[in-house]
Amino acid sequence: MIEARQLTKRYGEKTAVDGLDFTVRPGSVTGFLGPNGAGKSTTMRMIVGLDAPTSGTVTVRGRRYAQHSSPLQEVGALLEAKSIHPGRTAFDHLTALAYTHGIPKRRVHEVIEQTGLQSVARKRSGAFSLGMGQRLGIAAALLGDPATVMLDEPVNGLDPEGVLWIRNLLTQLAGEGRTVFVSSHLMSEMALVAEHLIIVGRGRLLADTTVEALVRDAGGDTVAVATADPARLRDLLSAPGVQITGEPGSERLAVTGRSAREIGAVAAEHGIALYELTQHRVSLEEAFMNLTRESVEYHATRPARSAA
Amino acid sequence: MTTVTDTRPAAATPTVPRPVYKVTGRGTLRSEWSKFWSVRSTWITVALALIALVGFGTIAAFRYKSMMSGGARHVDRDFLDATSVSLTLFGVNFGQLALGVLGVLFAAGEYTTGSIRSTLTAVPKRLPVLWSKVAVYGVVAFVIGTVGSFAGFLVTNAIVSGTAAHLSLTGDVARSLFGAGLYLGLIGVLAAALGAILRSVAGGISAFIAVIMLIPGLLSLLPTSWQGHVGPYLPSSAGEAIYTLHQQSDLLTPGKGALVLLGWTVLAVAGAAWRLVGRDA
Ligand SMILES: Nc1ncnc2c1ncn2[C@@H]1O[C@H](COP(=O)(O)OP(=O)(O)OP(=O)(O)O)[C@@H](O)[C@H]1O
Ligand SMILES: [Mg+2]
Q: Which of A169, A300, B67, B194 has the greatest number of beta carbons closer than 10 A?
């Protein structure tokens, strides 16, 4: 459980995180989404106390991260910026972390195996590929068997197999009752694993929602219909929860709340000719872009404004 | 803007049985110890420090020997009243460079490589990390300095046996050699603290060199009366007071010298602590 209250971080003039309020609950994967520079990494650094908030608070299971007696057991974090000495081997890196908490060597071997690093564990991490480095970061995050797993863009640099591995890992961790908090700027990626979404733009909270609700609010799935008798079809399809729009005099209708299959069946039953029947899936990516457009556009138009 | 508040009850705590770990001072110390020895640069620099401590004394001893036995038509002033201790301690100047660089690497390297983020997520209270680093490096630099000085003395003394420079291992000689170890231990910690304050390897090394070489050099440009007041209290002169065999008028007593150098080191470590707690990592 992570709770942010009015969490704010300023770097000089720049406000990276601006009054964020959110709660990340255990037992499911929560996606942390936002365009570049939205403040995701900064928020995550504040959660584990690497950066101090300018104002507001963020707690993990009711306490500031630093106040826990076993921090690595509370939060396992994979951060965006590299956090490993390139001259140290994977094994030595994990061992040094383990010593701080009295975590046994056995556990070090376990996470090395779990992340598939056996063959390179004794190599200096500076020689690792991007994906291997990412796996080592994840191994370090899992080391303390943490109640909360927090990963900043974990699929960066991973091959398709690695991406799949992460997806399964996240689902598994959440299934074990842990709090799983994962950032990304790709909605499509998040939609596959996350149940909850916290969406930020320019440091502000844009939405604290579920994948389901986001789709619903974005208008759900629409079916485009072109027919010989739009007025009659409209009457036949209308029911509570069904929305039908169409220009007068046009043969085209847009239907939400009914599947293409149902519409086709109704039309056939009543002998109405259909010229087109297309299901439009509202992509989550679109819903996300709609939400974040303002915060992205602001950056793009700023120079023009100052010129004017 | 969409804001849906999740009202589901919080899910149960993790179902997997979890062992209880705890971050401790001892654990942090072990961690820093293992981090120190698990990078190659440590071994290289330690070897360099030992080579400098023993090697430069050896070279000086051979030079002394050949001058003395070569009729000594003109003996360098440096060598006039040389002893096997003073010859040995030629190496301290170079040994302190190696140990200073290693101290800076140990502390500032965490920032330049980013490993500080791993370190501080494991020990978010932060200060135990600094205390552990200081303890690990203070002990290591002291031991290397002491071992190097004694080894250097044995070699040097053997080379100059039969000359006026030969000394037996008296209490004073041992004090001088331990003093060199103490000096190297403290100056090593000072270097590590500078690295932690500046968070940059290049910056830390520059600052360290300024402290041990540049500032004493600049001081020689000041009026002599000032030099007499300030000079003995510089870290390098205070250190020299600890390990010099014969009392010199322009130096503090060994005890005072040790206190003054300790003072400088404590000051630098306090600065590092203040930086560590007060600034984002
Ligand atoms: N240490 C810092 N000093 C100054 N500005 C910073 C610092 N860290 C972050 N910022 C600024 O704060 C803003 C938020 O950055 P942050 O890295 O948190 O975004 P992000 O959401 O993680 O972006 P991305 O998707 O690109 O990783 C950016 O404008 C960034 O330039
Ligand atoms: Mg980021």
A: B194
Q: Cα separation of B38 and B40, whole Å?
A: 7
Task: Supply A305's token pair.
Answer: 């404004």
- CA-nearest residue for atom 11, ligand 1, is A16
Helix axes B25-37, B115-122, angle to 10 degrees: 160
When comparing pLDDT for A168 and A287, which is higher?
A168
In 3-state terms, what secondary structure has residue A253? strand
Residue B174 burial (CB count, 10 A): 14
Tokens of B85: 């201790």
Contact by Cβ (8 Å): A211, A260: no
Q: State which ligand 1 atom lies nearest to the alpha carbon of A11.
A: 4
Say if residues B92 and B236 touch (Cβ distance below 8 Å): no
Centroid of chain to Cα A65: 22
| Chain A contact present for B27, CB below 8 A | yes
List the one residue out of B197, B103, B73, B89 whose CA is nearest residue B146: B89
Distance CA(A65)–CA(A63), nearest Å, equals 6
| Residue of A23, A27, A103, A104 whose CA lies nearest to A70 | A103
Check residues B31 and B281 and name the one with the higher pLDDT. B31
d(CA B101, CA B9): 56
Give backbone dihedrals phi and psi of A183, rounded to 5 degrees, phi first: -95, 155
Q: Distance between CA A202 and CA A35 in Å, rounded? A: 8
Side chain identity at residue B133, one-letter code: K
Question: 3-state DSSP call for residue A168?
Answer: helix
Smallest Cβ distance to A49: which of B10, B28, B124?
A: B124
A to B CB pairs, distance under 8 Å: 164
CA atoms of B37 and B43, how far apart (whole Å): 7
Question: What residues of chain A, 250 to 279, have a C-beta less than 8 Å from chain B?
Answer: none
Q: How many residues does chain A have?
A: 308
Beta carbons within 8 Å of A37's beta carbon, 6+ residues apart: A202, A299
Q: Which of B97, B96, B105 lies closest to B42, judged by CA?
A: B105
Establish if A43 touches chain B: CB-CB under 8 angstroms. Answer: no
Do A120 and B144 form a contact (C-beta atoms < 8 A)? no
Over residues B206-243, the pLDDT tens digits come to 999 998 888 777 777 777 777 777 777 888 888 778 88
CA-wise closest residue to B115 among A81, A2, A222: A81
User: Which domains does chain A carry?
Assistant: 2-216 (3.40.50.300), 221-280 (3.30.70)
Q: Name the residue among B14, B45, B243 with its Cα closest to residue B150.
A: B243
> Cα(B124)–Cα(A101) distance, rounded to whole angstroms?
12
Position A213 scores a pLDDT of 81
pTM of the model: 0.85
| A211 has a chain B CB within 8 A of its CB | no
ipTM: 0.86
